[in-house]
Amino acid sequence: MKGQTKHLTGQVREALLALPDTLLMEIFGEWLDDVDEQLLDWGDECRSALGYRIQSDETHKIYGSFEELEQAEPDGAGGSWVVPDAQTLRTILASLSLEQFYHSVIALAGEALALQASEEAWGFPPSVASDGYDFMRCLTVHLRYQALRRPEQGHISFPQQATGRRKPMKPSSSGLPGWL
User: Fold this and answer.
1) Is the residue at 142 inside a domain?
2) Is the model's pLDDT at 100 over the cut of 50?
3) What is the pTM of this model?
4) Measured distance CA(6)–CA(46) in Å, rounded
5) CA neighbor of 27 nearest in space, from 16, 37, 36
């Protein structure tokens, strides 16, 4: 991976991990649902990589994949996805290498947000035809905006770097006009 690709991938990951738990889970739920409408099998792969597990509708046992469910319960038992808790998802996102994050999470966002990215001129997601740099920059801004825009339990959360102490409002020079 190029240095710029690593840098931008890291920024997207930081923006995701800075989100409040409910918003993080909501965003991934939306992205996965959007991808399911277009690429069902790929959405299943993404869910597995992000810690989602399959629960048998009959026995309620948990499996790592539909294939495991089918082997263990060959009578055609159905299965449902079990969503990981926010801490598990955070741990998985943080433990992915930048390359894995790029090829899974950035790709997922690119598929899920393709229409919005096109409408808002974010640039193209990473592909053989595009480095995706503009898309990743816009995705980072979008995620940071989401964190500031959506209040959680009546409170707006600010990322840590935005909550520092204010500088005193004193002129740096006594020779500035209007300051006594």
Assistant:
1) yes
2) yes
3) 0.76
4) 21
5) 16
* Residue pLDDT, tens place only, 104-113: 999 999 999 9
* Cα–Cα nearest to 6, from 106, 95, 93, 91: 106
Task: Tell me: pLDDT of 161 over 50.
Answer: no
Pair 106, 122: CB distance under 8 Å: no
101 lies in a domain? yes
Residue range(s) defining the domain that contains residue 120: 3-50+85-150
Structure tokens at 77: 């038992």
**Separation between Cα atoms, residue 140 and residue 105, nearest integer Å:** 13
